[in-house]
Write a structure and sequence with these properties.
The protein is α/β, with parallel strands linked by helices. The chain has 7 helices and 5 strands; from the N terminus they run αββαβααββααα. It starts with a helix and ends in a 16-residue tail after the last helix.
Length: 200
């Protein structure tokens, strides 16, 4: 379960406002990639908070409101479909992460980044944490905000493109989703660079 050890280590080095950063939506075949940045109060108690992938959709929705209510600051940002196609998914993810950090109303002086690569161009000192969403409370909080925000966006896209059942799979490459792409062809939010093997 995540705790505040990474945040406390940063505070001991003289940093004051530590933000956790995570993304959701690198793997799907459709939609943008989403990133969130969160600054939590020191030792804020958020029962049940964990890596968003280990939580039910209902639990994530509940935690979203708790996190946004308790956070000193939070920000959600996207790497667009166009950026994913033009640059690549990693670069678009880095853009989303930097936008999330820069969008915080309270300016952080240190960032804990989920994964093993810091986003290019980040303007504050940072540390990467592999599986950070299961180790750091602020990264876990960011993982929940990113996942819930992206899922909500995919529900909106489901209304626009009802043939693809985005409300069910959120754009991920499930068997049903790939079969619908083969049947109807790609729609306006599909990542064409991800569909090369499907559309052969």
């Amino acid at each position: 379960m995540p705790d505040y050890e990474y945040e406390k280590a940063a505070v001991s080095r003289g940093f004051k406002y530590i933000c956790g950063v995570d993304e959701a939506g690198r793997g799907p075949l459709a939609g943008p990639v989403c990133a969130a940045a969160v600054i939590l109060p020191e030792d804020a108690c958020i029962p049940g908070l964990n890596d968003s992938k280990k939580l039910s959709e209902k639990k994530r929705e509940q935690l979203f409101d708790v996190i946004t209510g308790k956070a000193l600051a939070y920000s959600v940002a996207y790497g667009t479909l166009e950026e994913i196609e033009k640059l690549n998914i990693l670069e678009a993810t880095f853009l989303a992460m930097n936008r999330a950090v820069e969008g915080l109303a309270l300016k952080p002086d240190f960032a804990l980044i989920d994964g093993n690569r810091a986003p290019k161009g980040i303007k504050i000192p940072c540390e990467t944490v592999v599986k950070g969403d299961a180790k750091s409370m602020s990264v876990a909080a960011a993982s929940v905000l990113a996942k819930v925000s992206r899922d909500r966006l995919m529900l909106e896209y489901d209304k626009k493109y009802p043939l693809y059942d985005f409300k069910k799979h959120k754009g991920y490459g499930t068997k049903e989703h790939t079969e619908l792409i083969k049947k109807y062809g790609p729609c306006g939010i599909h990542r064409l660079s991800f569909l090369k093997n499907i559309l052969k």
